[in-house]
Amino acid sequence: MQGFCELLFELSNEDRLSILRELRKNPMKLSHLSERFGFTVPETARNISRLSEASLIIRDADGSYRLTPFGEEALQLLPGFEFLSKNKSYFTTHTLSALPREFVVSLGALEKYKPISELTTILHNVEKAMSEAEEYFWFMSDQLLASGLPIAVEAVKRGVAFKKLLPRNVNIPDDVLAMANNPVFEIAAREKKFESRYLDRVDVAIFLSEKEVAAICFPETQGRLDYLGFTTKDELAHKWSKSLFSYYWDKAKR
User: What domains are there in the chain, each with its CATH number?
Assistant: First the structure.
């Protein structure tokens, strides 16, 4: 535990963290690091000494410093903490507790998500992504978004494949159900272009196409989905979200 706390202490210093990130790009000499950040030479030397003692960096024969493999891996694990710290307010009222552990551990993939704090923005993103999808559109939700059904009809007509995950006990109003019973969906379902599966409970809302994650929304601490969350076009975040959807899809029943 002591070594772990010491590591966190070194990484928590803004100057030393800046040096580590710079050395991740290229090895550099002490004087160059001092010039790069505007530190005094004694300041830089002190930080270099601490990072060396922590085994995060090592000095090469030419006097340049570079990250050790230990330093590389330590930096790899920081994005998850950064994502949480940037969205502290959100995660005081929303929780990741229902997610599979392997996805919580890899939370750093979400580093480049953009927060969305307005429900209207979430709906706009979902509808826009659906209207621009060319290959597929997958969504996992605890309800059907009525405003998206006409857009889904047009997407199906142009060949977009849909995957839909809903809770088994989902309550769909009669007028929305009438829209959802469009023959276009039935034809697509027979061709396996509109697939539906059901879960006992939906732990997260996900809306994604091959181009972007239109929205990912985590539940409030009471378990309710308020549809506030995040959006991104980042490749790593998209892969994480797609994998999470696939995890639930494989668990769900037809």
Answer: 2-76 (1.10.10.10), 94-251 (3.30.870.10)
